[in-house]
Structures are given as C-alpha cells and as structure tokens.
Amino acid sequence: MRIGQLSQRTGVPTRMLRYYEEQDLLHPERADNGYRHYPESAVYRVQQIRGLLDSGLTTEIIRRILPFLDRPDEIHLHPQCLTPELADLLEAEAARIQQRIDCLARNRDAIHVYLAAVRALRT
Length: 123
Known about the structure:
Blueprint: H1 3-10, H2 14-22, E1 29-30, E2 36-37, H3 41-54, H4 59-65, H5 84-122
Antiparallel strand pairs: 1-2
C-alpha cells in the first residue's frame, strides 16, 4: 500500500509516517518511481509505534525495542536485546513516566477538591 493508504488506515498523517521512517522506525520499500510501498504488516507496526509513543517512550527507545516486539499489547524483549545500557535507559524512562503519573494524580486530586468546593457553594 502507498503512504496515503497507510495514513488512512492508521489515522496517522503522512508527515508523521515520513518522520517514523526518518527515525528508522518504519522501513518501506521504494517502487521504481520512488513511491513508498508498505506491506500489510505496516498497519500493525504503526499502531504499535503510536501506542509506545502515547505511553511516553522516546523514538530512541522504540527504535531499540521495536524489532523484538511481537504483540500489540505487550512488550516482549528478547534477552539478547536487553543490554545494560538499554536497561538503564528503560529504568530512567519508567522513572520519568512515574513522575508524570504522580503529577497527573496531583492535578486530578486538585480538580476534585475544586469541584467539591464549587458544588458545596451551589447548594
């Protein structure tokens, strides 16, 4: 399929698909006319990339673990890919994500307190 079709099927703009290619996350074939050609499996791969990006992982981390992913909802790293450097990178990323979760939880709690106070004034 061509890049426009992949974009329609995944909901990811063509510009982002080109960016994924630049980041070495997608590897389309090139036709004689220079057009990108994606296999059917690219739909799943783009969904995987989007999910990992949405979870807060960087393209650097995704590039390193993507070849070892085999399911859409789980990360199954092959033991050979978990180098000490990658383990440190993943631990730092997990800590960064936890900081975001903590911040979001504080913001959620503050909103609930505010709503309770406003609602109490209305009654």
